[in-house]
Amino acid sequence: MKKKFLFFMVTLLLMRPLSVFAAQENEVDKAIVDLSKQGKPDLRAQNQIEVSEEQELLYLENEDRIAHGAKALVMEERLNTIARLRVAEVVNHFSHDRPNGSRCFTIFKEQGVHYESAGENLVRGKQLSPEVALKLWLDSPTHCHNIRLRRYEKTGIAHIQTADSVIYWVQVFIKDKSEK
After folding, report:
1. For a pLDDT cut of 90, what percent of the chain falls above it?
2. Fewest beta carbons less than 10 Å away: which of 48, 89, 154, 161?
3. How far apart are CA 54 and CA 169, in angstroms?
4. How much is the pTM?
5. Residue of 160, 169, 177 whose CA lies nearest to 28
6. For the segment 113-172, what is each residue's pLDDT rounded down to a tens digit?
7. CA neighbours within 13 Å on the CB side: how many for 84?
């Protein structure tokens, strides 16, 4: 338990600023039941500190990455900005294509972010806690691949809940472009 908490605190310090398409409600319900059967803790309740849901998702994801031989992702504000812009787009146009018809990756150039490789995960549904969103992504081979891909180093995460209680999550991943 102490090792997990220490890892959580180190991950939080590193994060400081210094296509699951439509998940069906029954899939979300199943994911919630599966997690409760596994006894997965609610990190916000367990720790006496305020943790954003984006940070919680990253913490859980980094546990999975490390267990599968990849390094922990580092959250960056410039990528969080991209994720926030994308989540605003996917609420009205749920696709890896943008509302203007271009691919999701065009937003990186628009925001001045240059990369060697990039990925994007989307999920939507009701009752999508960080744990459930991650479970749905890990159950999808293409989304799981993005999460566990060793070359990705940095990430940005955003989520939003609409008036009709649908929650949208967007996560972007990059490997920075090498300077030559």
Report:
1. 69
2. 48
3. 9
4. 0.74
5. 169
6. 999 999 999 999 999 999 999 999 999 999 999 999 999 999 999 999 999 999 999 999
7. 8
Nearest-CA neighbor of 88 among 38, 16, 22, 159?
A: 159
Dig out the tokens for 49 from the structure: 């500190």
What is the chain written as a DSSP string?
-HHHHHHHHHHHHHHS-----B--HHHHHHHHHHHHHTT---HHHHSSS---HHHHHHHHHHHHHHHTTPPPPEE-HHHHHHHHHHHHHHTTS-SSB-TTSSBTTHHHHHTT--EEEEEEEEEEESS--HHHHHHHHHTSHHHHHHHH-TT--EEEEEEEE-TTS-EEEEEEEEEEPPP-
| Among candidate residues 111, 118, 179, 103, the one with its CA nearest the CA of residue 149 | 118
DSSP 122-162: EEEESS--HHHHHHHHHTSHHHHHHHH-TT--EEEEEEEE-
User: What is the rounded distance in angstroms from the CA atom of residue 39 to the CA atom of residue 27?
Assistant: 19
Give the residue carrying structure tokens 């913490």: 59
Tokens of 165: 């209680």
The full length of the chain comes to 180
Under the banding of pLDDT at 50, 70 and 90, the label for residue 51 is low
